[in-house]
Structures are given as C-alpha cells and as structure tokens.
Amino acid sequence: MRWLAIHCPLLALESLAPERTERPLAICETLAGRQRILLCNRSAAAVGVRAGMTAGAVRALSSQVQLLPREPGRERAALEALAQWSGRFSPQVSLSPPWGLLLEVAGSLRLFGGLDALLAQLRADLAALRYSTNLCLAETPEGAALLARQGCDCVLHDLHELRRALQAVPLEALPLSGGEREALQGMGLARLEDLLRLPRSGLGRRLGGEFVRYLQRLLGELPDPRPLFLPPDRFDRSLQLPAEVSATRSLLFAIRRLLLELDGFLRRRQLGTRELRWSFHHGAGNRSFLRLGLARPERDSGRLQLLLRERLERFVLPAPVQEIALRVTHLEPLAGRPLDLFGTRADHAGTPLLVDRLRARLGEAAVSAIEMVAEHRPERAWRRTCATAMVAGGGGGEMPRLQLAGQRPLWLLPQAEPLAERAGWPWWRGRLQLEGERERIESGWWDDDAIARDYFVAIAPAGERLWIYREIDAHRRWYLHGFF
Predict the structure, then answer these.
(1) Which residues pair with 63 in a beta bridge?
(2) Burial class (CB in 10 A: 0-12, 13-18, 19+), 64
(3) What is the mean pLDDT of residues 100-110?
(4) Which CATH superfamily hosts domain 235-305+316-333?
(5) Global confidence as pTM
(6) By Cβ atoms counted within 10 A, which residue in 9, 10, 204, 304 is the most buried?
C-alpha cells in the first residue's frame, strides 16, 4: 500500500479566507484565558507576527493585522469538503485531523498514468482550491502524516527510505502524553533517531506497550488500518468571507473553490447535476438566492463557473455578502457520449453549453425549443417547450419524426398569407413555378377546425423556394404558408 498524506498547515486561516490577499491576517485562539496567535499568513509574518504571540502584542506591533478567531467547526467542514473532493483520486480516503488527509493511491496510479501524473494533477487542483499543502508519500499512513506535518514534501519508495526520513523528526512532534514526553526528556532524547536506537523491551517498560505499538505502526512493522471517510449523500457547503463583498464579480474566488469541491464530490460518484442552488448571506438573517439550471447533467467546474459568471452579470446583490453557500441535492448519472469510428465524440457537446449560456445570460424563460407533435395540420404540428428538452437525451440526438409525404419548410408563417393569382397561376413577386407533386392534407374534422388543402413547393422568379397551398373548396384560393 502507498499512502499519500495531504497536510494543510494554514487550513485554520484558509478555511475562513479563500481568496489570496496581501492583507496581514492571523488566527487567534484562547489559551489559559489569553488570546494567542495560532498561525498567520506571510503578510502578517513580514511585520513580525509569530505563533504564540498574544493578541495584545500583535495590536501593539501593527494596527493593520486583522485577527480572526479560530473556528474549529469551519476547519472540520473544510477538511471534510477536501475529503469529498479527494475521492476523485482514491476511493480510500481517511481524515487525519485537524488539518490533514490520508489517501491510499496504489490502486489509482494506472488510472492517472503513473505517480508523477497523479501528483501533478493533485497539486494543480489544490492550488486552484487555494490551499497551502505539504504532500508526503510513504509506505505507512502514520509515517506519511507525521512527515507531512513536519513540512516534508517528498516521495519515499520503501520502508528503508521512510525510516531514514523519520530519524530527524523531533520527539515533540509525536503524539505523546505529558508523562511520556517528560520521560523521554529525562532520558536525554531529542529526535526519533535517538529513540529508535533503544531496545523495544526497555521502551515498553518505561512508556508502555501502546507506545511501542505506535512505533511499530509508524515503521510498518504492524498493520495500521484506517477508518474510511464516508461522504454525505448530498453536497451542502458554505464558505464565510473574511470581509463583506458588495460586487458579484468579487465572489468568484470563493465560488471557484466551492465548484471545485463539487467537481470532486460528483466525480467520486460518477454523477452530475442539473441544478445548483446558491444562497448569499447578508447578515441579520437576510439572504438572497440564485438558482442555476442546466440543460443536462454536468459536473465540470470550468463549465459551471463559466455559466455562473454569465448569470452573476444579471444578478443584483441587495446587500454586501458575508457568507455564500452551495447546495446540490438532485444527482443524476452522466449521459454516455458515443464515439465515432475515429474515437472522437460523435455528439455535439457545444449545444448544451450554448443553451446553458443563453439561459444564464437571458433568463431561463427567454430560451425555448421546438418539438414536433403527432399532428398533420402544419400549424399544429409543433409546440414550444423548455430548451432543456432539446438536450435532455445527451445532446445531438434527433427528435422523433412523423412519416410525412412531402417536405416541410424551416420557416412557417404564423398566419398563411393570401397570394395573388393571374390566369390561374399563383404570383409572389412574379409567377411561381410549381415543383414536384402536390401533397394533400385533409384533417381536423373531429374538432371543428378542419382543413382541406393541396400543398406545393413553389419557385419564385428570384429563386426563393416557398411552401404554398390551394384550398380544396369552391373558392380555390392560393396561400403562402412558409419558406424553405
């Protein structure tokens, strides 16, 4: 087994501030009744902020540093969202709280084309999510996690390399109790290398059998089974913004993170969604809502971001936004896309995207499609329907057709227009020449809207092709009904 540890050293900060900013930010927590700095970003470190400082000392140092209280609940939510996203890289994902994940990736290497390709894709996606990370690959989960927490970013190919890398780890980095830590300090030990030189029997007598078993799991001498993360059945994620945002375009940084997390959530299940429900929290319990409907199930974060950007251009925020949330409850299988003889996509993938972009930009009610009806009367042989019906079957498929005796024009007039007649011939900008055989349509006698017509394809003097008919009655009038 090959375990990949993902450690996010700034998760407490990046879970609250998804956008990279030059503003000095620091996370503080209350310890022994005093607020102390847990961690900070580079801008805060540049002005002298360090972990362990009191909040008062930071304020005295610089008034520009923004202090954010630590929120363990949001850290946990961000870690679980990362676990959902990482399911696209491995079905075996374990949480390594408070700021880490463990992925068993041996079974995924062939899927991604090897270890280098998998790590490259993983790093690119984590960078897009705006998370600072350390990645360590090792033969044991505890060894990978311990080294990643120490800031190591490495690939260890066997247990020998793992043991060598662990030697420099300070003992205070181990999960020790207060008594165990004091006992090791009393023995004059500082690094794991010093500890591993001692006989296990003596360590067991001094520190207990559980500590010895921990070392054995760390070094791969004992199995170390990990509980797997079980993702929820639906995607429901919120993200608090570090400062109020008034412009919709400024929300795109946070929106991108949520869409990337959704992408991983859907890829893990090989599913897509037709509907994204966004909510924007404005404070004092006020919210505004935005629904994004899709023509067919989708999961690609790039396409979803493109559509949402189109929609946000028309969306007006009633007040500054403090928090955004994305909820996806309806999941559907992705429609299979057949390949042609040469292995390329046989359908027109751009059609659903075009429909979605038009609906996002103009409004869902502004875009519709036309579908055929089992009816011989031309004016009743079609109806307007929702545009999503056109691509509901995956796009590119043809609508069912009636068995028609003649041709049908692309442009059917709302009302047939009377034609002039000279010497028994229909005229439209000159004498019309009839082409082909007539098509007789007699229908509608059962609903008091009967028609009896002879339809022809006619050629105008300038070359236009028209669809005309002559009534089968005593008047025998000619009418123009459409254009080819």
Answers:
(1) none
(2) exposed
(3) 95
(4) DNA polymerase, Y-family, little finger domain (3.30.1490.100)
(5) 0.70
(6) 304
